[in-house]
What we know:
By secondary structure, the chain is α/β, with parallel strands linked by helices.
Amino acid sequence: MVEDNLKRILKELPPEVKLVAVSKFHPSEDILAAYSAGQRRFGENRPQEFAAKAAALPSDIEWHFIGHLQTNKLKMVLPYASIVESIDSKRLLDAVEKWGGDHDKVIDVLLELHLGAEETKGGFTEEKIKDILSVGLSYPHVRFRGLMGMATNTDDISIVEADFARIEAFKKHLDERYNLPVFNELSIGMSHDWPIAVRHGATIVRIGTAIFGDRPKLGSL
Length: 221
């Protein structure tokens, strides 16, 4: 099932768009099934689960951390993550910079834009992101690679379309204003809305359920 789902999505996905297979809550066997089918990018959102899988699974996997990251959990994530997609506060950004300095490592990150209508979602406002990029040299151990965002959780396609159009326009504005050489990623779109995201410039889509099926209950892992 995993292999068939993966092949179907890759057949529809433009080759220039990166697929992150969101494997959170799914067992290593499912990840290895996708790996055997050629998938190398996987996304996790819980630090402890992330660290355990990264340590146990093949070393050539490109791990994306996509969930809220507490500053006291950096040691579980940053040694393994190819990129942290979910930098959602200046406090977290400063902590990642300090960890990078302490460990002589540059961390690739995406800045999470608060995009949807839900107040419960994390992320920066547009102005806060511009403030951060204006002082980017203050973060020598952080490499700003682009933006991440989630559309409003709704069945109204017009709202999702408007959310993605907004982040696409903001990304273009940042590119014109700051001309950052590696600020080229836009991670938007999940299992239910990734085709819309691709139309609005996504370079990364994060797809879990459409590959692995519904998440198992925590007790069944």
